[in-house]
Specification:
Distance between the termini: 12 Å
Helix content: 25-40%
Shape: globular
Number of domains: 2
CATH class of the largest domain: Alpha Beta
Largest sheet: 5 strands, antiparallel
Structural class: alpha+beta
Strand order of the largest sheet: 1-2-5-3-4
CATH topology of the largest domain: Ubiquitin-like (UB roll)
Strand content: 5-15%
Order of helices and strands: EEHEEHEHHHH
Radius of gyration: 15 Å
Length: 165
């Protein structure tokens, strides 16, 4: 979808979930993560290392997982950004969110938004991934609590379901 607006000071919220098309900060070199917290007021995406190494701040840019601490808001202008807030629809959790809860893949929860978005990107393009493909897809997301076994199980358990929005 391609959206345009004359109001360069506000993001455009789409009707399905909270998909963000960013038009703000056109002349400011802010990381998208800063714009997300300070200007838009959302807090689901987590700030981690600020160097793109931990995956805590992962968002989907045009459907691909990226660290929002390294993406400048100006580079996101006019592009679809999906944050964790945009995954649930009509108050119902996404199948990945349900699976993370059911399989015990959420402990402290800090890595969960980034893990879910990385997994969603994988499942949107490869609905029946192998265990190795799942491990590769979440390799950029660090978790210090679970040891990844339950995370991989949660992602595997949703294979074959519809993950698109």
């Amino acid at each position: 979808m391609n959206f345009t607006t004359k109001d360069l000071g506000k993001p455009l919220f789409l009707s399905k979930g909270i998909f963000l098309v960013v038009y703000a900060a056109a002349s400011v070199l802010l990381p998208f993560l800063v714009l997300y917290y300070e200007k838009i007021g959302l807090t689901g995406t987590k700030k981690g290392c600020d160097t793109g190494q931990c995956g805590a701040c992962t968002v989907l840019l045009e459907g691909k997982p990226v660290p929002s601490c390294l993406i400048l808001a100006v580079d996101a202008k006019g592009k679809e950004i999906t944050t964790i807030e945009g995954v649930a629809v009509d108050g119902r959790l996404h199948p990945l969110q349900e699976a993370f809860i059911q399989k015990g893949a959420v402990q402290c929860g800090y890595c969960t938004p980034g893990m879910i978005l990385a997994a969603k990107a994988l499942l949107d393009t490869s609905p029946n991934p192998t265990e190795q493909e799942i491990k590769e897809a979440i390799a950029g997301n660090l978790c210090r609590c679970t040891g990844y076994v339950k995370i991989v199980e949660a992602i595997s358990s949703t294979a074959g379901e519809s993950h698109g929005q």
